[in-house]
Design a protein that fits this description.
The protein has 6 helices and 14 strands. It is α/β, with parallel strands linked by helices. It has one domain: 4-Layer Sandwich (Metallo-beta-lactamase, Chain A). It has a 7-stranded mixed beta sheet, covered by helices on one side. Strands 7-8-9-10-11-12-13 form a 7-stranded mixed beta sheet. A hairpin with a 2-residue loop joins strand 9 and strand 10. Helix 5 (204-214) packs across helix 6 (240-249).
């Protein structure tokens, strides 16, 4: 049986589309028709267990030894988004480039990743990587843990093959996020949104409201599966069906796709 990394490598993406595989948490692998592989927020290790005593729910769907990214993007420096154990290994065994906020760049360099391979990206800035354009958009991620403040956390607007993909990163609901809905001539095709409602993130109801405002064609919940035996407290909303139900009650018409860990989805203009 093929591993997920082999499946990703073997997949031929049709023109006019982008393939995405969910790594759990906010982690995704995107692949374009040109073969470009972009890893977003890959969490390869189990280092959070050592810091906060929270075990991951299962092994990484793509082990760091098998990953073959061309570009790695981190939305902020929290350890399950900028992996202090996995990324130095990845940097040594691949030629991947890194794109992340300034606080991530400083940490990557401290872990021995050459500065020439790291590009800092702040809100409002855009970088082109091969056949993909990445713009950093607003995020407000207030985890409430002293020492883990991330004022430069970002969301991502990724454009490839005519598609516009919005990855919220970790964020609470904020009026600035609605700005992505203002340009009706360039609508959002896919929205990947946090729903866990804990640690400085939107809950399922807030994510549904934002999705209703942004009006994507495909809506993908994330950050509801990552931790083992961790409820997230009274405010957590870890059921993607709650997102779908609230979104439908608001009148949302997008296709809601709650992926299994490691599952892929073909995102196309005619989806």
């Amino acid at each position: 049986m093929a591993t997920l990394s082999q499946t990703i490598a073997d997949t031929r993406v049709p023109p006019g589309s982008v393939m995405a595989w969910w790594l759990s948490g906010t982690g995704f692998v995107l692949k374009t028709p040109a073969g470009t592989q972009i890893y977003i927020d890959p969490y390869f290790s189990n280092c959070v267990a050592q810091i906060f005593g929270v075990e991951r729910s299962g092994p990484p769907p793509v082990p760091v030894e098998d990953a073959q990214p061309d570009l790695v993007i981190a939305t902020h420096w929290h350890e399950d988004h900028l992996d202090p154990e996995g990324l130095p290994i990845l940097a040594r065994r691949t030629s991947a480039q890194f794109l992340a906020p300034p606080s991530c760049r400083s940490r990557l360099m401290g872990w021995g990743v050459p500065g020439a391979r790291i590009t800092a990206l702040s809100e409002g800035q855009t970088q082109v990587f091969r056949d993909v354009t990445i713009t950093a958009v607003a995020a407000r991620h207030l985890a409430g843990i002293p020492g883990w403040e991330v004022p430069d956390a970002i969301g991502l607007l990724i454009e490839a093959e005519g598609l516009r993909i919005y990855h919220t990163g970790d964020t609470e609901y904020d009026l600035r996020l609605r700005a992505l809905a203002f340009d009706k001539s360039r609508p959002i095709d896919v929205m990947m949104t946090v729903i866990n409602g804990a640690g400085g993130n939107m809950n399922a109801h807030e994510a549904a409201l934002l999705a209703w405002q942004i009006q994507p064609k495909i809506l993908i919940p994330m950050h509801h599966v990552l931790w083992k035996d961790f409820t997230g407290g009274e405010q957590a909303t870890l059921d993607p069906n709650l997102l779908a139900d609230t979104y439908r009650r608001l009148g949302g018409t997008a296709q809601v796709r709650a992926l299994e860990v490691g599952e892929g989805i073909l995102m196309a203009l005619n989806s």
